[in-house]
Specification:
A 5-stranded mixed sheet has the order 2-8-7-4-5, with no helix packed on it. It has a 3-stranded antiparallel sheet with strand order 1-3-6, with no helix packed on it. With 129 residues, it is mainly β. The radius of gyration is 20 Å and the shape is elongated.
Length: 129
């Protein structure tokens, strides 16, 4: 059994929902989930958090509890967000945080496109009028 403090680490494995550059409607609810592996030697408990570290917060929390996971196990990180109302590309970056507030592991991203609205068609004159 190793002695001393354990090491925190997290490895991104795959996007489970909302792949990068997905087009979403303005203001829509987003259930973003990532599959990650606890690649460190510390078990994640209720004191571990997933924290928004950069980019738009998408109207969601700045932090959320991590799914508990033993060292070496896979886990799902999830945040519930709302798509921005402005058209364009939007990104939100998240990272795990240990109970002391230190960030660790791979960052995960929500990277979406809010399309520019298509203008409503205007009345076209009929031929011969």
């Amino acid at each position: 059994m190793p002695s001393g403090p354990c090491l925190n680490d997290a490895e991104f494995l795959e996007d489970l929902t909302i792949p990068d550059l997905t087009e979403v409607e303005p203001g829509s609810e987003l259930d973003k989930r990532w599959l990650v592996r606890n690649s460190g030697s510390c078990d994640w408990n209720a004191e571990y958090r997933l924290v928004n570290v950069a980019g738009q917060g998408f109207g969601g929390p700045d932090l959320t509890a991590l799914f508990p996971a033993r060292a070496g196990a896979s886990a799902v990180w999830q945040v519930m967000l709302t798509a921005p109302l402005t058209p364009g590309e939007h990104i939100s970056r998240w990272q795990a945080q240990d109970p002391d507030g230190a960030p660790f592991g791979d960052e995960v991203f929500l990277y979406i496109i809010v399309p520019t609205p298509t203008p409503a068609p205007t009345g076209q004159p009929t031929p011969g009028s």
